[in-house]
Amino acid sequence: MENKLPIGQKLTIEVQRLGINGEGIGYHNRKAIFVDFALPKEEVEVEITADFDTYYKANLVSIVKKSPSRVEPFCSVYHECGGCQLQHLAYDETLKLKRELIIQAIRRYVKTPVSLDLIKDTIPSEPNTHYRNKASLPLQYKYGKNVIGMYKPNSNHLVEIKDCPVQEQDINKFYTLILNQMEKRKMLAYNNTSKTGTVRFIIIRRAAATNEMQVTFILYKEDPEVVELGKYLVEKFKEIVSVYSVINDDLKSREFFTKNTHLIAGKEAINEVLNGVVFSLKPDAFFQLNTKQADVLYNKVIELGNFKKTDIVIDAYSGIAPIAQYIAPHVKNVYAIESVQASYQSAKDTIIQNVNKNIDLLKGDVVEVLNRNKNIPVDVIVFDPPRTGLGEKVTEFLLKKKPKKIIYISCNPSTLAKDLDVLTQTYTIMSIEPLDMFPFTAHVESITLLSLK
Ligand SMILES: C[S@@+](CC[C@H](N)C(=O)[O-])C[C@H]1O[C@@H](n2cnc3c(N)ncnc32)[C@H](O)[C@@H]1O
């Protein structure tokens, strides 16, 4: 077994490329070694930490030969927090990497040859720091105080975050302020061992255009003090206009929101304005996390769609239907499909409050709604699915329905490439444009234009 490296073994490798999680990848006897924080063309000393069938994981011990693209991370807890994966790489290089990850996925899954000219340069995010308009952070009571932060990847160690450089500044400011108020009021983070305290997470969302903020407390059980704190926040700070509590005692679930969600102070929704449209955001409605870059993305849809006033368009996986709102003035009618009640309701409220009335909301699963409405004479379909992509049933529908144009927004290069492999039977890829929605993370967003052959 010459290929077997024992756990704890140190060795020096040359890093060949970056993987989908931003990790450096080198090889030992043709078996991959994944090393966080290592960069291509670097020679690094690593220590093997895990041996899987097809690859090893290793820690970076030291850098023997440094990449010219290596930079000093700008966050003091970057190596512990896990929220960002690429702060040690120059920003321009992170953009090239995101394009490269799409190329790798296309080469792996799409049988039809795709010219590299069709895969454009990544559209940068401006700004690339303090871009996140929402944070959902867990709390712990440790060392005699409430601490807020992020769990270190694959551990239950909470890394304290005081001033996150990717969250909007006002969000950082209000986390500190709320923690100070909790301390004054002797309120505790929930502790599952001692069964003390109530607050599990605090979610803060900010609307850039109006500077309105919404605070949501995720609680293990009811807490009258949280209600008092919510009322205080709304009375004292003009920015905080909406405060909710959610009782959620399911410690295993990844969902924050339950039926036990209540407005405790202020108004039900905060208002964001994009492209002249006022969107009302309740806490459990989907909204893109990088507001400026969302506007860039939606304008890209308009550019690629090159819509006509007679066009009938479908906005599938529509969320609160911002894409439908951007498209509506350019076309005859838009149908927006969304399955989650909160987002569907926000989309409905938005239509009532705004001028675009040529939008029809269809609630339900995309596959079911498309099949139920297969007689709609659709010209263009815009898809913005979750990471799972379109999948077999949607691509099957498209191969039969044959809309002239498909615009596919993807947040996962692998599922995009698998779907494109099927769609290229009937469609030509006109362009694939990566777009940096989450700077300094390994997330890759892209927008693809397909035209019927
Ligand atoms: C990536 S978000 C895009 C939302 C919207 N385009 C935007 O830019 O805000 C995907 C949306 O698809 C919805 N969704 C997920 N699976 C769905 C399905 N099977 N059918 C309909 N909607 C779905 C989610 O609730 C979410 O709102």
Give the radius of gyration.
24 Å
Backbone structural class: alpha/beta
Give the strand order of the largest sheet, numbering strands 1, 2, ... along the chain.
Answer: 9-8-7-10-11-12-13
| Number of E-type strands | 22
Q: Tally the helices.
A: 10
The residue ranges in which pLDDT falls below 50 over 5 or more consecutive positions are none
Give the strand content: 25-35%
- The name of the CATH architecture of the largest domain is 3-Layer(aba) Sandwich
Pfam families: TRAM, tRNA_U5-meth_tr
Keywords: Methyltransferase, S-adenosyl-L-methionine, Transferase
Active site: 411 (nucleophile), 411
Organism: Paracholeplasma manati
Note down, in words, how this protein is organized:
Keywords: Methyltransferase, S-adenosyl-L-methionine, Transferase. S-adenosyl-L-methionine binds at residues 288, 317, 338, 384. It comes from Paracholeplasma manati. Its EC number is 2.1.1.190. InterPro entries: MeTrfase_TrmA_AS, NA-bd_OB-fold, SAM-dependent_MTases_sf, TRAM_dom, U5_MeTrfase_fam. The model has no long low-confidence stretch (mean pLDDT 96). With 453 residues, this protein is α/β, with parallel strands linked by helices. The chain is globular, with a radius of gyration of 24 Å. Helix 2 packs parallel to helix 10 (413-423) and helix 9 packs parallel to helix 10. Strand 7 and strand 8 (145-151) form a beta hairpin. 25% of the residues lie in helices and 31% in strands. The chain has three domains: 10-69, Beta Barrel (OB fold (Dihydrolipoamide Acetyltransferase, E2P)); 95-126 and 286-452, Vaccinia Virus protein VP39 (Rossmann fold), CATH 3.40.50; 134-274, OB fold (Dihydrolipoamide Acetyltransferase, E2P). The N and C termini lie far apart (51 Å). The strands form four sheets. Strands 9-8-7-10-11-12-13 form a seven-stranded mixed beta sheet. A seven-stranded mixed beta sheet has the order 18-17-16-19-20-22-21, sandwiched between helices. The protein has ten helices and 22 strands. The longest helix has 19 residues, at 91-109. Bound molecules: S-adenosylmethionine. S-adenosylmethionine binds next to helix 6 and strand 17.
